[in-house]
Specification:
The chain is α/β, with parallel strands linked by helices. The chain is built from ten helices and 15 strands.
Length: 371
């Protein structure tokens, strides 16, 4: 370790700025504890970004002397990564290391600035979609929560999905199995958890076929204070993007007195034409929600999701007022995960009609459950 390093005062400040953790991107090491043995010891090393001498790693004839004892030029690293950045010079440039230090210290400051009353219980729900086994990373969910200004109330989320299920959604038994499991897991892990821990704030991360997501939202209902996150594909992130937002549009039927059908043409425009072919006979009234340019990443912000909630509520009220008494609503969906969960949460189980939920599989639209 260089002798031209920080003063004791600056060492204490850097330790606080780094949160006691190695500042190399992705390193989980806390410098005051051995990860394996949990032995407490000061393992931290102060690594110069611009070398402390012109002949050292990333050294500079002028800047090395100027910045050798400047805290902004020094990273807190574990011994392994200190050696690595000073050996693999072609991989760890001055610019890269300054950027890592900045990201790490901004993250520490942002997390520690979160109010102590801002705790939320993370719920993850994953079910097989087609031939894909869906998995939601607990670390990714917790990281998203922290970046959004909340603390996870537990180190591990409440997981509701069937782990490593071999049943695919093409199988007839899939829907009954998944529905039974979700309802049972929700009652055991969410409702009882809420009663035991008096927690009522939840953050939902889900990937599953649309009907199951609507069911999850119905179980949540409006008695839970829940925020629902969306996995964006471009860029891949659970964080809200707040760009390329599109307004929701509702197309109402000219005759509202027929059997009610609700279509969400949000991630795909083709669903509307397909659904119309399913109801060639008269006596059907189709309500449609869409956006100007349907695509997989149409949902970008919390504000959009809030607007979705408001517009869905208005559609359900309109159907309640005009459709024949006792008629359930056929629901066909091409939309995002968070909208599907929110659809279930918006539905009033006492006042609204039942939903007949359809899923597209094997080139057929099949009613898979009624809630």
């Amino acid at each position: 370790m260089s002798k031209r390093t920080l003063s004791p005062q600056d060492q204490r400040v850097l330790l606080a700025e780094a949160g006691g953790q190695c500042e190399l991107d992705g390193c989980p090491e806390f410098i005051y504890e051995d990860m394996l043995t949990k032995q407490e010891f000061n393992f931290g090393e102060y690594a110069h970004i611009i070398g402390d001498s012109k002949d050292g790693p990333r050294g500079d004839v002028v800047l090395s002397d100027e910045y050798c004892t400047n805290r902004k030029n020094i990273m807190l690293l574990c011994p392994k990564h200190h050696k690595m950045i000073d050996t693999l010079l072609e991989k760890y440039s001055t610019e890269d290391l300054f950027a890592m230090k900045k990201r790490h210290e901004e993250r520490v400051r942002r997390i520690l600035s979160i109010g102590k009353d801002r705790f939320s219980t993370v719920i993850t729900y994953a079910a097989n979609v087609g031939c894909h086994n869906c998995v939601i990373s607990p670390d990714e969910a917790n990281e998203t929560l922290l970046l959004d200004g909340w603390y996870p109330s537990e180190s591990r989320p409440v997981e509701l999905g069937l782990v490593n299920s071999s049943v695919k959604d093409k199988s007839p038994e899939y829907w009954a199995t998944e529905q039974q499991n979700l309802e049972r897991q929700f009652q055991l892990k969410v409702e009882q958890y809420m009663q035991a821990n008096r927690m009522s704030r939840f953050s939902v991360f889900a990937i599953a076929p649309m009907p199951l997501l609507v069911l999850l939202g119905t179980l949540m209902s409006d008695k839970f204070d829940a925020q629902v996150y969306q996995l964006h594909k471009e860029p891949r992130s659970w964080m809200w993007q707040a760009d390329k937002e599109q307004p929701f549009m509702v197309n109402e039927p000219s005759d509202k007195g027929g059997h009610p059908v609700l279509v969400f043409s949000l991630s795909s425009a083709a669903i509307r034409e397909r659904v119309e072919k399913l109801y060639p006979e008269k006596g059907v009234s189709i309500w449609e929600m869409t956006v100007p340019e349907p695509n997989n990443d149409y949902l970008r912000s919390k504000e959009q999701l809030s607007d979705f909630r408001v517009k869905v509520r208005a559609i359900l009220e309109d159907i309640n007022h005009h459709a024949p008494t006792g008629e359930s609503i056929d629901v066909h969906m091409a939309m995002s995960v968070s909208c599907a969960v929110t659809l279930g949460m918006v539905r009033n189980t006492k006042a609204d009609r039942a939903f007949n939920l359809f899923d597209r599989n094997n080139d057929q639209d099949i009613k898979v459950m009624t809630i």
